[in-house]
Design brief:
This is Enoyl-CoA hydratase. Pfam families: ECH_1. InterPro entries: ClpP/crotonase-like_dom_sf, ECH/Chromodomain_protein, Enoyl-CoA_hydra/iso. By secondary structure, the protein is an alpha/beta fold. The protein has a single domain, classed as 2-enoyl-CoA Hydratase, Chain A, domain 1. A six-stranded mixed β-sheet has the order 1-2-3-4-6-9, sandwiched between helices. It has a three-stranded mixed β-sheet with strand order 5-7-8. It starts with a strand and ends with a helix.
Length: about 240
């Protein structure tokens, strides 16, 4: 279970690498806890000016580990909710590199990021309702704001798969590039951001997010309540259990 999340600090950039490739970087409780720790470290460390999140040139994140859902008894807050709250409250720029699958949280975390680079053939998917669940990470608010209700409904409720190029057209991704240059392109962008005056960058980012911050916080509260209720429903448990038969 060690080294499921790798981190490296250089040139005022903290690079976080998802490193569970045998499970397509599906996030489990251990990984979420480490992400929370790293985000807190980056928030408190004045030497870190930018965060870079990546997998490798073939895989980003297949979403939540479904086994964790089945094991969760509802007695305490699901650690994924703690992570998305930290993600939304984070004060420094976030750059993300996407290749291969970007499922569930692998897509919704991008709505809180500042620059996203993807391969053209990356596969984005928000399969919440197909699992008997509902949107999370304030995606029920942010995705309609970004692309309108109808297109957001198609992605969030129908769960249609879309490519990196489509994600770029939707405004979720900044730029598409070939897989062989994905990680270097994202790192260069993060380092360029980190070279700028940190206070000016973080103040600008804060001002851009200020008008929706309270709405985002409330959306996360609402989503967490319904997500937890649905996660404990017979319908959801039956769907998730079928994956392990």
């Amino acid at each position: 279970m060690d080294n499921l999340i790798l981190s490296n600090e250089k040139n005022n950039v903290l690079t976080i690498t998802l490193n569970r490739f045998d499970k397509k970087n599906a996030l489990n409780t251990v990984m979420y806890s480490e992400l929370c720790r790293l985000f807190e470290y980056a928030e408190q460390n004045s030497a870190i000016h930018c965060l870079l999140i990546q997998g490798n040139e073939q895989c980003f994140c297949a979403g939540n580990d479904l086994a964790d859902f089945l094991q969760h008894d509802g007695s305490e807050e699901f650690v994924a909710f703690k992570f998305v709250k930290q993600l939304a409250a984070f004060s420094k720029p976030i750059v993300v590199a996407i290749a291969g699958p970007a499922v569930g949280i692998g897509t919704t975390l991008l709505l809180h990021s500042d620059m996203v680079f993807s391969t053209n053939d990356a596969k984005f998917k928000l399969p919440f309702t197909q699992l008997g669940l509902c949107p999370e990470a304030a995606s029920s608010l942010l995705l309609p704001l970004k692309m309108g209700h109808n297109k957001a409904f198609e992605l969030l409720v129908l769960g249609n798969t879309f490519t990196g190029q489509q994600a770029c057209d939707y405004g979720i991704v900044n730029h598409c590039c070939e897989s062989k240059v994905l990680l270097s392109t994202a790192l260069t962008a993060a380092e360029n951001i980190a070279k700028l005056p940190a206070d000016a960058v973080q103040t600008s980012r804060k001002l851009m997010k200020k008008s929706t911050q309270a709405q985002v916080e409330q959306a996360m509260i609402n989503e967490a309540q319904d997500f937890t209720r649905l996660m404990n429903s017979d319908t959801c448990k039956s769907i998730l259990s079928a994956f392990f038969k």
